Amino acid sequence: MLVRVTLVTAALIYILPTIAGVHVKGDIWGALAASLVFNLVFWALECLLAVIVLGINIGTLGLGLFITGAVKLVAAALSPSLALMGTAQVLPGYIHIGNYFPGAVSAGLVLGGLLWASLPNKKREAH
After folding, report:
1. Is residue 123 part of a domain?
2. Whole-number Å distance between alpha carbons of 91 and 110
3. Phi and psi angles of residue 64, each rounded to the nearest 5 degrees, phi first
4. How far apart (Å, rounded) are the C-alpha atoms in residues 24 and 12?
5. Which residues, 6+ apart, have CB-to-CB distance to 116 below 8 Å?
6. How far apart are CA 37 and CA 16, in angstroms?
7. How many domains does the chain have?
8. Distance from C-alpha of 23 to C-alpha of 4, rounded to nearest angstrom
9. Assigned domain for 45 exists
């Protein structure tokens, strides 16, 4: 978790300001606060996705596995973007997203790549 917070903080300071449509203001403490909020929102989205997938699989007696595979793929790509938009709503003084597409989607894909890279090898192979 500490690695994720550190990587997102570094991305907020150095990478995201270069993406069009995403404006990051403040210092390292603001980036750290935004990183903590981002990771909290991202974790909540992961929990929500797990509940939805479990509900679909139980509700269809396992036949929803075909549906949930596609849902998990799309959610894995868009969850960081949604978490970034949620962070921008919670901390509008630090992160401002001018346009949600392509700015927030591009920044979300960058953050998603960082989060994926921070996973241990055993967990990465399970996905």
Report:
1. no
2. 20
3. -75, 0
4. 7
5. 124, 127
6. 16
7. 1
8. 21
9. yes
Provide the terminal-to-terminal Cα distance of the chain, rounded to the nearest Å.
Answer: 18
Is 125 within the bounds of a domain? no
Instruction: Tell me, yes or no, whether 98 lies in a domain.
Output: yes
Give the CA dihedral 90, 94, 99, 104, nearest 10 degrees: -80
Q: Distance between CA 42 and CA 11 in Å, rounded?
A: 15
Give pTM, 2 decimals. 0.78
pLDDT digits (tens, 9 = 90+) for 70-120: 877 888 788 888 888 888 888 888 888 877 778 777 777 787 777 777 777
Amino acid identity, position 7? L
The 8-class DSSP code of residue 24 comes to: E
CA distances from 63 to 50, 51, 69 (A): 16, 16, 11
Contact between residue 97 and residue 84 where contact means Cβ atoms under 8 Å apart: yes
Q: Which residues pair with 20 in a beta bridge?
A: none
The two three-digit tokens of residue 81, written as one number: 């973007």
CA 92, distance to chain mean position in Å, is: 17
Written as six digits, the tokens of 73 are: 């793929």
